[in-house]
Design goal:
Distance between the termini of chain B: 13 Å
Number of domains of chain A: 1
Strand content of chain B: under 5%
Shape of chain B: globular
Largest sheet of chain B: none
Largest interface: A-B, 39 and 41 residues
Number of helices of chain B: 7
Structural class of chain B: mainly alpha
Order of helices and strands of chain A: HHHHHH
Largest sheet of chain A: none
Number of strands of chain A: 0
Oligomer: heterodimer
Structural class of chain A: mainly alpha
Helix content of chain A: over 70%
Radius of gyration of chain B: 19 Å
Number of helices of chain A: 6
Distance between the termini of chain A: 24 Å
Number of strands of chain B: 0
Strand content of chain A: under 5%
Radius of gyration of chain A: 17 Å
Chain lengths: 126, 143
């Protein structure tokens, strides 16, 4: 039962943080190059452009959800399982979500790198 | 990718891993947080290590957002995964944690993964909206 709870928490973390990353990336895509905005209108204009974007707020909400799922998960299982397992799976789900929703060109090189990093993060837990 | 943009990626790596290390160092002082003493989680932010860690993580988040405004998510995430390696090295030399053989293997795999993505294009070409266009951009960038 405990294992089921742990994996439920990991699933929740993965879903929430993937949604968060994709929403943040989508928000920043719509806002445009922050470096250019800062050079043109100043730092505060750049911050305002980000914070006033509703997709950004949604993304931050998902990140908060992921954080609290992590806290709940940590109360059921070891940090050395929950943190690397969720971080590692998120690299792969992010690649899938970026291809599906952000229409990024995820070529073979990027798949390889997502899988390598995911495996590496998992090994770091040992 | 300009030099300035590489600096932003470097900031993500450095401030992310330093922030996490500072939080871990601070939580050693604070001790374990349980439901019975959950207020410790709030007073923890006044611990100097944790306060510095939070500042680092704010800089990290700003740089992360900046990078997403000009690069793909599937480029930024693997490219900055080298931060996990920095984190492992910091926890070895600063927090004196042990790094097992499996961890060194993990570090090697992350470095390989970062190498794969770093050689490619950082952003999907959207004007042409075609994969061939992105590949052309790739070879031009490397040339």
């Amino acid at each position: 039962m405990r294992t089921a709870y742990t994996w439920a928490a990991i699933t929740a973390i993965v879903l929430a943080s993937t949604a968060g990353d994709v929403l943040l990336a989508y928000a920043m895509q719509r806002v445009g190059d922050l470096g250019e905005i800062r050079e043109r209108d100043g730092l505060f204009a750049a911050i305002r452009a980000v914070v006033s974007n509703p997709w950004f707020m949604l993304g931050v909400g998902c990140m908060a959800l992921a954080f609290f799922s992590l806290l709940v998960g940590l109360s059921w299982a070891d940090v050395s399982l929950v943190a690397p397992a969720s971080a590692s799976i998120t690299f792969v789900t992010n690649a899938i979500a970026a291809k599906l929703f952000l229409k990024e060109n995820v070529d073979r090189r990027r798949w390889f790198s997502a899988v390598f990093v995911a495996a590496g993060v998992l090994l770091l837990a040992h | 990718m300009t030099f300035k943009k590489y600096l932003v990626l470097l900031a993500i790596v450095c401030f992310g891993s330093t922030g996490d290390t500072l939080l871990a160092r601070g939580m050693r002082d604070v001790g374990e947080v349980h439901l019975s003493n959950w207020t410790h989680a709030i007073t923890a932010i006044f611990n100097p290590w944790i306060a510095c860690g939070i500042v680092c993580l704010i800089v990290f988040f700003g740089s992360y957002l900046a990078s997403l405004s000009w690069a793909d998510l599937t480029f930024v995430l693997p490219a900055t995964a080298i931060g996990y390696v920095v984190l492992a090295l910091l926890s070895k030399f600063f927090l004196h944690e042990q790094i097992s053989l499996a961890r060194w293997a993990g570090i090697g795999m992350i470095v390989a993964g970062v190498g794969f993505v770093a050689g490619g294009p950082s952003v999907t070409e959207r004007n042409e909206g075609h994969e061939v266009a992105a590949l052309v951009g790739d070879s031009e960038e490397r040339a």
